[in-house]
Amino acid sequence: MEYRHLGRSGLKVSAISYGNWVTHGSQVEAEQATACVHAALDLGITTFDTADVYANTVAEQILGDALAGQRRESLEIFTKVYFPTGPKGPNDTGLSRKHILEAVEGSLRRLGTDYVDLYQAHRYDHATPLEETMEAFADVVRQGKALYIGVSEWTADQLREGARLARELHIPFVSNQPQYNMLWRVIEPDVVPTSLELGIGQVVFSPIAQGVLTGKYRPGQPVPEGSRATDPQGSQFIRRLVEDEDVLARVQQLLPLAEAEGLTMAQLAIAWVLQNENVASAIVGASRPEQLADNVAAAGHRLSPETMQRIDEVLGEAVQRDGSVVGQASPRERLS
Fold this sequence. Notes:
This protein is α/β, with parallel strands linked by helices. The protein has helices at 30-42, 58-67, 97-111, 130-142, 156-169, 191-198, 236-242, 245-252, 255-260, 265-274, 289-296, 305-315; strands at residues 3-5, 12-14, 16-19, 47-49, 76-81, 116-121, 146-151, 173-176, 201-204, 279-284. A hairpin with a 6-residue loop joins strand 1 and strand 2 (12-14). This is Aldo/keto reductase. InterPro entries: AKR (IPR020471), K_chnl_volt-dep_bsu_KCNAB-rel (IPR005399), NAD(P)_OxRdtase_dom_sf (IPR036812), NADP_OxRdtase_dom (IPR023210).
């Protein structure tokens, strides 16, 4: 395993982190989820990412149970706040002071810990003044309930303003968690340069494009049974990709590039993400322990310049690079 600094902070995280977005509490039973977490630990993964909204708080509980008995100082536990949880009342969502201070208590209880290493704003809250949000995060840090603050899917301007307030409040604002992979590069034009300037690192999700970059979805063939694309609760992102024959055909052309590097397709995708100097960690999930061993093998592997160039040539116009779409995942109206 490779370990990297998170942004300009002193905190080190594993280059491969374990996330339980679509597995714990939904796709995978608790016993299997625990087996996956223990496999991650055995492989050197120390960084675990979750959120209160995943499976409506159940994912946090399962992760906390799976990590029980581990040396707390040897782990980096991340969680998030924003989306509706519980009975979904008018204040059970967003980044208001009330919701943040109440949500962190619930997350700590479910995770079975006195603090999280990183507490993240799961989206930008257009319905709450940013000053209120950052002051609440500052209190969470000063109370010792979080060591660092981060965000997810914020624009470059939002990151800049959040960092300014964090400096005034003397709290460590160190990370952003965006979607990033070979096919989805929208953070490259603005978010990455701004983050490098501010000392913010990326902890990226969907490095294998929810399975599309493994090559298991083939043009002209049915979607494999049990795959994420068959999940009616799955994202629009994967459904759009698996319906695009051109994208699937281009992904198949990556196989000889992976073989030339001595990697699987999934490893190639993860290694590509980790090649970005601003990426501290790539989040992977698993429904089976053996999947993690394959993913972890990508850590520390540097792709050749020739391979990087060929990836760009092969994927061509299938790559989404439009930085203006960053932040569109943050609802303009408060969810309820």
